């Protein structure tokens, strides 16, 4: 299992002046840096009122639910901030919270208060105001100076048309020189914006994400749970399927042996029945082995295995596998079962007419995308099929994300960390 360092989580951006200017991430980060102070101010005002009030009221019974509601509120704000940082900076920060207890007010209070992520969320939201103020002032000053220099000829022309004003540049030569300096400052501003975004994103990873040890512990726990669930499934399939068939075969053969001399025709019929039961048991064992690890995946790789899944789907499924080399066997197996379960769910619930499967590699590892144009509404619930896929991905420090609005389409994306 490979741990993920901060540098893998916070993109620094492309190299070169042109690269940083044309990269969309620069222009998504710029407005966030300008307006984050507003979010920081709003959260500071809300928390400065809600936290002391709820603590003061804990002396009476109403303070306890109010304090819990306040904690849920700032955790919700932190969740929103993680999504905004992902859109603005490209920072992927999974929610690091501990598993929620099933019932009990005392258990929920203990869960909220003892989870370190609760207090890290509070610290980040309170820190957002001073940090956002510095970012907003620096960003606004840079962009105003950049715009004023770059558009110096235009401003001078407008000043001459309107008249009555005084401009710092008295002739066109100075205005055009200023414009050139404005272009240079634009590149510098873009670099500074990316630098501030990187610092902000790194700090957010530290406060809004769990520690590396906590992530690894949670990943191991989910991996153990997934393995235990798989073991129970195999035991259940063996007990209810092949074992029962083989037991029936043994009974039929015993009866045939008893009737072999006295009633040969009936014995022959029992042997024929036992032969059919043996073939059925072999077929069930073959299907069970395919469910553990399909032979075609080992022999021919993901492309052939996923094409086989697509061929058995009830609708047309386009498959694209763009991997120059075969990834490790564990990654191939998890990718295969993610696609298999996603296509099975699509066939059962989505009412889709077309779907696609895309597997490719990027800096995060192997990315698996499964898309369909069905009715949507798929959610990850504890104990469900998608939750099981997320647990499989977690065994190699991977992440499963489901986007399935009502009305569709549905996209299941798995990011599987690996090294060749």
UniProtKB/TrEMBL annotation:
Official protein name in the record: histidine kinase
KW Zinc-finger (keyword) present: no
EC annotation from Swiss-Prot or TrEMBL: 2.7.13.3
Single Gene Ontology MF annotation: protein dimerization activity
TM annotation in the entry: 29-49, 55-74, 124-152, 172-193
Species in which this protein is naturally found: Nonomuraea turkmeniaca
Domain Signal transduction histidine kinase subgroup 3 dimerisation and phosphoacceptor: 230-295
CDD domains given in the database record: HATPase_UhpB-NarQ-NarX-like (cd16917)
């Amino acid at each position: 299992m490979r741990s993920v360092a901060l540098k893998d989580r916070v993109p620094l951006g492309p190299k070169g002046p042109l690269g940083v200017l044309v990269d969309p991430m620069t222009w998504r980060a710029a407005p966030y840096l300008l307006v984050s102070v507003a979010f920081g101010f709003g959260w500071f005002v809300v928390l400065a009122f809600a936290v002391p009030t709820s603590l003061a009221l804990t002396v009476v019974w109403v303070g306890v639910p109010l304090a819990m509601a306040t904690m849920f509120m700032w955790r919700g704000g932190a969740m929103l901030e993680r999504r905004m940082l992902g859109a603005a900076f490209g920072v992927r920060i999974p929610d690091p919270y501990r598993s929620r207890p099933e019932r009990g007010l005392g258990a929920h209070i203990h869960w909220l208060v003892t989870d370190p992520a609760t207090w890290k969320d509070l610290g980040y939201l309170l820190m957002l105001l001073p940090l956002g103020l510095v970012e907003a002032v620096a960003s606004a000053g840079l962009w105003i100076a950049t715009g004023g220099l770059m558009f110096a000829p235009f401003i001078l022309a407008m000043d001459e048309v309107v008249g009555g004003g005084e401009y710092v540049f008295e002739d066109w030569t100075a205005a055009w020189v200023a414009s050139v300096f404005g272009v240079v400052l634009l590149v510098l501003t873009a670099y500074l914006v990316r630098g501030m975004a990187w610092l902000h994103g790194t700090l957010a990873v530290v406060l809004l994400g769990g520690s590396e040890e906590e992530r690894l512990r949670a990943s191991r726990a989910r991996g153990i749970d997934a393995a235990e669930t798989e073991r129970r499934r195999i035991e259940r399939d063996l007990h209810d399927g092949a074992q029962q068939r083989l037991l029936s075969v043994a009974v039929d053969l015993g009866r045939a042996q008893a009737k072999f001399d006295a009633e040969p025709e009936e014995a022959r019929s029992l042997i024929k029945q036992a032969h059919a039961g043996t073939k059925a048991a072999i077929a069930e064992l073959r299907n069970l082995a395919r469910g553990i690890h399909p032979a075609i995946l080992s022999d021919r790789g993901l492309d052939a295995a996923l094409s086989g899944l697509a061929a058995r789907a009830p609708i047309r499924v386009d498959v694209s596998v763009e991997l120059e080399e075969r990834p490790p066997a564990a990654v191939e197996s998890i990718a295969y079962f993610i696609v298999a379960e996603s296509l099975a769910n699509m066939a059962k619930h989505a009412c889709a007419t077309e779907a696609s499967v895309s597997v490719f590699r990027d800096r995060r590892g192997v990315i698996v995308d499964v898309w369909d144009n069905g009715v949507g509404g798929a959610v990850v619930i504890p104990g469900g099929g998608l939750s099981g896929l997320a647990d499989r991905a977690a065994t190699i420090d991977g992440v499963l994300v489901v986007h399935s609005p009502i009305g569709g389409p549905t996209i299941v994306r798995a990011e599987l960390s690996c090294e060749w």
